[in-house]
Design a protein that fits this description.
This protein has 10 helices and 8 strands. With 259 residues, the protein is an alpha/beta fold. A hairpin with a 2-residue loop joins strand 7 and strand 8. Helix 5 crosses helix 7 and helix 8 crosses helix 10. The chain is globular. The relative contact order is 0.16. The C terminus is likely disordered.
């Protein structure tokens, strides 16, 4: 048996998990979420975009992916990033690293839908950012997933060489510009000719994943996929309505109406 699996099983025996709800903290019975909080977590089991993996109204390619397909081959995520799901991810980032086990459990099921993966990489953080937070949540998750799906983790293949400004308020184009030059490949041999799965906590615009995907392809990766704990649901922008959409394209609003 693999040493990592033995180590994990020993930890489960010696340090059994305290079964309380990961959102509200009430006692549960062999579950991570109480019945009430479970209702606030939306699992990605319904219609999703087959490229970016975000929840959609219908099981078809979303308009954003039709307009500009992502660099990675395909993405999957376990949870919709809103309500209880967003709160869980926030807790995971801020001192609750133990959630890696719950997230690895639910995400490992989604990964079964992907082709054979040769190895995992995670979105890296700078050393300064790791010292501030105490850990890299994507690294914790990737390590747990590696054990569950029995796929090696290419731990030192990527590095983040500079911090970037906060991205929450930025558009995808602005995020891509913000990320230029902040990542680099540190071990080309690890990913060359391999099918690589990027692990991260959240998919919003996809700018970070696409930046890393481009680096992996430049280092000779055979193919690249993405898996995140959660993803922001794809929604048609509020300034559009159903009559503005024709075959995935926006009708020019300046066009004069027919009389």
């Amino acid at each position: 048996m693999d040493f990592k699996i033995i180590k994990r099983k020993l930890a489960e025996i010696l340090f059994p998990r305290d079964f309380t709800c990961d959102i509200c903290g009430v006692e549960t019975f062999n579950d991570n979420l109480c019945p009430q909080c479970k209702k606030t977590v939306i699992f990605n089991t319904d219609a999703v975009c087959p490229l970016c993996g975000r929840r959609t109204v219908r099981p078809e390619i979303c308009l954003e992916c039709k307009d500009v397909p992502p660099s990675f081959h395909r993405a999957v995520s376990a949870i919709v990033h809103e309500d209880g799901g967003a709160l869980l991810v926030k807790k995971f980032k801020n001192g609750n690293g133990y959630l890696k086990e719950f997230f690895a459990d639910v995400l490992s099921e989604k990964i079964k839908d992907l082709p054979k993966i040769d190895g995992l990489v995670f979105v890296p953080m700078t050393k300064k950012a790791i010292r501030k937070r105490g850990y890299n949540q994507a690294a914790l998750l990737a390590d747990s997933l590696s054990v569950r799906i029995n796929v090696p983790l290419f731990h030192g293949a990527l590095e983040k060489v500079k911090d970037t400004r906060e991205q929450k308020s930025l558009t995808k184009k602005e995020r891509l510009e913000n990320l230029k030059g902040c990542f680099r490949i540190t071990d080309k041999n690890a990913v060359y000719g391999k099918v690589v799965l990027i692990i991260d906590d959240v998919l919003t615009t996809g700018a970070t994943a696409e930046t890393i995907t481009d680096l992996l392809f430049s280092a000779g990766a055979k193919d690249v996929f993405l898996a995140t704990v959660s993803s922001v649901e794809y929604k048609i922008k509020k300034d559009l309505n159903a009559s503005d959409i024709r075959s995935g394209e926006q009708v020019n609003k300046k066009q004069k109406p027919k009389v």
